[in-house]
Amino acid sequence: MNDLSGKIAPGPFHHVGTRPVRPDGVEKVTGKAVFGPDFSVAGMLYGAILRSPHAHARIRGIDTRKAAALPGVKAVVTGADFPDLESLTVSAGESSGDIIHISRTCMAHEKVLYDGHAVAAVAATSARIAQEALALIAVDYEVLPHVLDPEAAMRDDAPLLHDGIFTKGIEPAPERPSNVPMKVALARGDAAAALAGAAAVAAGRYTTEFVHQGYIEPHVCVASWNADGQAQIWASSQGHFSIRALTASVLGMAQADIRVHPLEIGGGFGGKTGIYLEPVAMLLSRKAGRPVRLAMSRGEVFRATGPAPGAVIELRIGAAADGTLVGAEIDFIYNAGAYPGNTAHSGLICALGHYRLANARITGWEVLTNRPAVKAYRAPGAPQVNFAVESALDDLATQLGIDPIALRLKNAVIPGDAQPTGVPFGQIGYVECLEAARAHPHWSAPLGPNQGRGLAGGLWRSHGGPSTGEVGLAEDGTGLVAAGSPDIGGSRASMAIMAAETLGVPYEQVRVTIADTHSIGYSMVTGGSRTTFATGKAVIEAAEQVIATLRQRAAAMWNVAADTVEWRDGTAIRADGERLSIGQIAAKAAFSGGPIAASVGLNAAGYLPGFAVHICDVEVDPETGHVGVLRYTAVQDVGRAIHPAYVEGQLQGGAAQGIGWALNEAYAYDAQGRMENAGFLDYRMPVASDLPMIDTVMVEVPNPAHPYGVKGVGEAPIVPPLAAVANAVRAATGKRLPDLPLTPDRVHAAVHG
Amino acid sequence: MNDLSGKIAPGPFHHVGTRPVRPDGVEKVTGKAVFGPDFSVAGMLYGAILRSPHAHARIRGIDTRKAAALPGVKAVVTGADFPDLESLTVSAGESSGDIIHISRTCMAHEKVLYDGHAVAAVAATSARIAQEALALIAVDYEVLPHVLDPEAAMRDDAPLLHDGIFTKGIEPAPERPSNVPMKVALARGDAAAALAGAAAVAAGRYTTEFVHQGYIEPHVCVASWNADGQAQIWASSQGHFSIRALTASVLGMAQADIRVHPLEIGGGFGGKTGIYLEPVAMLLSRKAGRPVRLAMSRGEVFRATGPAPGAVIELRIGAAADGTLVGAEIDFIYNAGAYPGNTAHSGLICALGHYRLANARITGWEVLTNRPAVKAYRAPGAPQVNFAVESALDDLATQLGIDPIALRLKNAVIPGDAQPTGVPFGQIGYVECLEAARAHPHWSAPLGPNQGRGLAGGLWRSHGGPSTGEVGLAEDGTGLVAAGSPDIGGSRASMAIMAAETLGVPYEQVRVTIADTHSIGYSMVTGGSRTTFATGKAVIEAAEQVIATLRQRAAAMWNVAADTVEWRDGTAIRADGERLSIGQIAAKAAFSGGPIAASVGLNAAGYLPGFAVHICDVEVDPETGHVGVLRYTAVQDVGRAIHPAYVEGQLQGGAAQGIGWALNEAYAYDAQGRMENAGFLDYRMPVASDLPMIDTVMVEVPNPAHPYGVKGVGEAPIVPPLAAVANAVRAATGKRLPDLPLTPDRVHAAVHG
Predict the structure, then answer these.
(1) B257–A516: do the CB atoms touch at under 8 Å?
(2) What is the dihedral of CA A729, A732, A736, A741, to 10 degrees?
(3) Which of B538, B494, B527, B533 shows the shortest CA–CA distance to B512?
(4) How large a percentage of chain A has pLDDT more than 70?
(5) pLDDT in tens, A645-704
(6) Is the pLDDT of residue B473 over 70?
(7) Which residue has the higher pLDDT, B37 or A564?
(8) pLDDT at residue A362 tops 50
(9) What pLDDT, on a 0 to 100 scale, did the predictor assign at position A2?
């Protein structure tokens, strides 16, 4: 099944493409689903974390004696309780980095690097006592100069966050440490010459701000670490296997000694692929001898988890008179916050990946500042550069008098074109998306005064990777699927559909469980738009193994050869037409040949990038500068939509988040480097009343490397909105606003400037 | 691996036979292990059950209106809420019976059949309100005559419990219903003629009482049944797959719709193989729309769960002058309580199964009375008949002047002898046990006045059956085993030992999880002395599949053929001696070939019966009739002891329970049929101060059908104690006391009578 040979099921399908009831829907709408804060165990303590009020400071000492003496306090932990670690790059799915940095993100040792950096933690018999205890901890800080702006942080005289970071990717290797962990570069052809000969060149400097994923549920975990070294963690995350691997690395434990149970997750979007609380809760639990729950407030989530990098992008893109792109030069800086995050690579790949372009030079820098370390946020690294590129393409179309879709169609990559990595594209559907956008009524609908329409395209690389899927049968023949990938965007439904389709049974007869780390084989995080593709492949292959077993068992019951038994519509069929249902075979199975179940682990190859084209209509209020989104259409090549309602939800959700990034969202800091808007009242995400219904168009160009044609769909829809909105504002105002977010004050100033 | 061809590992072993720290030991002694009463979920309600105060009554009506109106009460359930069922024999591991009877055991419908029979249940926001609500339920009973004694229940004029039970196993089939569900019989040779020609005949009528398993933890479950039909149950039991199957059958649900999570279990001994609370908690949860916990008190456990049958046994056994057994006639009645329990079959098989005997006739009857329906209790059905047979053998030895061990050795079954079923015995070790007993210093130690020594042998059939085992590797190469059999007697340790032995890694690197019903394939109950054998075979086979994968992955890393790579000591070894550790291979595995894990489901064949020989010394106080146990030695063929400390614990525990059965324990009823001693103060189980340290001798005659030679060990040790104690009392007093328990009043009367 892990082959790429194009044996895609042709259909018609019984379940694939239908919209059955969500298996977790009732639990969630009735409040019974167990999210992190709902979970408790007997004897549990309540933890709390003391956080730095300074953006940059040396910790001269921490006096926890008064806190420890407070009645009800059972444990106090500081950075000194963390084991010393050797610098080592660890990778756990999408979450990778130096293990020392991962440890320090959980709790500062010598220095605090941002407002909100954890410095100590307590566990107590009540949440109130834990908060009281925090107030009794005295931290002796030596406040240091701080830097928030990435360009300032690159200067030689900038405050230095780390002693040991030397820029990678430059020759000769630097002798002095800096705030610049990495330079990345990509070049083909002669971009400078091509630009010099271009008929039109669009140039600009664009900026985007730190923005947060804004998942509804804050980070929570419960940890129980026994005196014999074995531990259990209950947490909501995008990958309980990542929690296991990272926590084991930070604490120097064997992975088998940490069993991680997945709880329901109230949104992640990439921000829940790493760890913040788990090692702290573990250390508190070991000291206290009891389980400990740690839960973040909304303020802690903003101040101390991982937003998306802010960016500065300078670029020049040139085209021939007919719209053919001839050359591009892009320089970008990604502000990664306090620790390196390998943020720049995706920018490199996604900036121009959707266009054929013979001459290009792209240079990216990752820069550290006194902000929380960034984390993946839906298509991490792609929206920022895409915003600049798709804005510039719009400017080129204007300059050349070419329709924006026609310009993009002229240059859009097609199957066989080289990716930025050099590998040719497979069965991608960018052209199909552009054509669908052009054919959509939205594209030709009339506009009123102060209104404008913008369009942008974009891609996300997607991913495959390792997953395990199990399929088994209960004694009554109903089906059980276990997966190791948390269900964030509907994987229980999609796994049930794919398993039911493969087995030939009703959807309601297949129930899907997200199994803990010790009950199923390794599965990478739910992220990278990989789960329906990769975990789906594992589940389908396991279902096929179950069918093979069912045919053998039926053959044994009939006393015929297994290869004379067909499997169709959930039924074994003998050569003479005699049938045995899945229930009839299962009823006899355990006590004859043994229980029927199959486990398949694979490293799913053959994933394909996702392409999206968004159309946005805005109305700009010239009085206030307010930008209202009037109409929005998200077009995407989704491969094949297993459960279309969930796919539409992904397209709508990505668009909504991208619109927030474009119009409203930004981290705001005061002069001391303290975050000023660490809450949903002040950090302004779009709410339902801010947005129109987002229309969706699912273009289906099936992926031949997946039995049902699946491509990743979750991330591409956040790539185009930044430019789609900005292009619409330019159309409405005639002004190119290169700095996000497009807040009323900025728009008002541009309109009246 | 499921072959019986004798490919038993020869040793020496690294782990098998060692006594490492128990993986669940620290959790249990520190109170962190999550047993039923420790478990709660958010929004949970507290349930309580109203129980019949009558031994036998018709329910004319139940008025629950006042209870339902009590503030805080969220649901009330009676028998009318249970679905109508068609009579159907269901089997879920060891627990089988008519589904209507299983349903009625959970809650009475038309009639109550015993004191404590459930008649209604409530769920409320607190346990106090739930109890208050019970007091507001008015049940209109028509009290009926009741019967407690099995011989009385067999009479034509006995109160009839059920209208529809007609004795099976008699010809012609009876036309009238009765309280006798079943007659079983077995005959070979001519027993009457052989007895007529015997040199000595021992005859007697023996009785045993209802006794309870006395597990420390009462039954508890939490159930959550959603509006969409899906449910979760958390329960401590001997088999969460049985809970799933039985609850689904009682409620008419698909098994895939009930996910059952195993909690730690505080003892079961056969009594936790069925269901009592789960369907009630489910119905309360569905009505209330919230999760519901139901927990029994100790009194409820005694009155309303399944003790072991009481018995009446009449027998005659004859021997030649040299001690050769020549013939036997046995008639026994098992008192099964309120519902049929298929109790008699084991009595038939185990009565004389340990001796060669050409002429035998055994007839058994199962009889119903107004007591709770019996359930499996450690070697179910064997101790009662064994008590009579081994008492009679002792009498024969006395009559003939032959040493009791010599008499038994002369007649003991050996490999190749026919079992009562006709199938020849495999590699059994009864002779070895008898010889070990004879060689033990206990057998020849001197005795004082009023002291006596008794000996008895016995067998238990053991079982194999379906189990699933999973073995996987974390990214650091540590090992993860998942099993579907609850760990009652140390299966986490034994699975870890067998997996570590097979993989060639340290014991501490393998952690074992008991997975829920939806995370692993079907596994039969932990019972029948089957788990180390059957689940062990599945785990070993899964470990061997993992080794095969590791060799393939190492071969791929070296670019050599997999069959040139050896696996030894947890290391892949190339032909030239180059090595790759399990950790080195695992670190690369997921992202190259995919996660490494294997799932094996099998129906384990090749189990062998267990044989035990016990020696008991007592001192009888002639003043009071008190019997004190001075010394006790349990000898058993254990096949091969994977973790000897746990095996010794099984031998000691079985002996302790058997001593209680012999000396103290019995259900006591008043004239209205109400249980008078439903609590540990009045139902007198042996405590530590009642018993000497039980000495153990593990005889190892390995089972060739298991890779490490495993035989079941958990049940055989409860078979001989009844007769061993009674024979010791006879030796001390010169009196044969045929009625258990040997309470001081009975012993005093016999000594002075």
Answers:
(1) no
(2) -20
(3) B494
(4) 99
(5) 999 999 999 999 999 999 999 999 999 999 999 999 999 999 999 999 999 999 999 999
(6) yes
(7) A564
(8) yes
(9) 40
Assign residue A747 a region (left: φ > 0; alpha: ψ between -120 and 50; beta: otherwise): alpha
Residue B3 pLDDT greater than 50, yes or no: no
Q: Give the pLDDT score at B2.
A: 41
Q: What is the ipTM of this complex?
A: 0.94
Q: Indicate the class that CATH gives domain A424-462+608-753.
A: alpha beta
CA distances (Å), origin A533, targets A540, A697, B711: 10, 20, 45
Burial of B681 (0-12, 13-18, 19+ CB in 10 A): exposed
Maximal CA-CA distance, chain A = 87
A 10 A CB-CB count for B746 gives: 17
Per-residue pLDDT, B92: 66
- Cα–Cα distance for residue pair B362/B349, rounded to 1 Å: 9
Q: CA B508, B511, B514 angle in degrees (round to 5)?
A: 150
> What is the rounded distance in angstroms from the CA atom of residue A650 to the CA atom of residue A696?
10
Cβ of A739 under 8 Å from any chain B Cβ? no
Total number of residues shown for chain B: 753
Residues of A in contact with B587 (CB under 8 A): none
Among chain A residues, the shortest Cα distance to B511 is held by: A256
pLDDT in tens, B271-323: 999 999 999 999 999 999 999 999 999 999 999 999 999 999 999 999 999 99
Model confidence, pTM = 0.96
Pair of tokens at residue B567:
């696996």
Instruction: Please name the residues between 486 and 545 in chain B that touch chain A, using a CB distance below 8 Å.
Output: 508-511, 513, 515-524
What's the rounded Cα separation, in Å, for the pair B214 and B267? 8
> Per-residue pLDDT averaged across A244-254, rounded?
96
Question: With contact defined as beta carbons under 8 Å apart, do B20 and B497 qualify?
Answer: yes
Q: Are B228 and B289 in contact (CB under 8 A)?
A: no
**Best CATH choice for the domain B2-33+464-604 from the list 3.30.365.10, 3.40.50.300, 3.40.50.720, 3.40.50.1820:** 3.30.365.10
Phi then psi for residue B327, to 5 deg, are -165, 155
Peptide bond into B12 cis (omega under 30): yes
Residues 6+ apart with CB under 8 A from A361: A185, A186, A187, A191, A192, A328, A329, A330
Domain ranges, ordered by start, for chain A:
2-33+464-604, 424-462+608-753
One fold for both A2-33+464-604 and A424-462+608-753? yes
Q: Is B257 on the interface with A (CB under 8 A)?
A: yes
Contacts of A542 (CB under 8 A, 6+ apart): A469, A470, A471, A481, A598, A599, A600
Is the Cβ of A679 closer than 8 Å to some Cβ of chain B? no
Of A92, A520, A523, the CB nearest to B519: A520
Distance CA B122, CA B48 (A): 6
Tens digit of each residue's pLDDT (9 = 90 or more) over B570-580:
999 999 999 99
CA–CA min distance B636, chain A (Å): 29
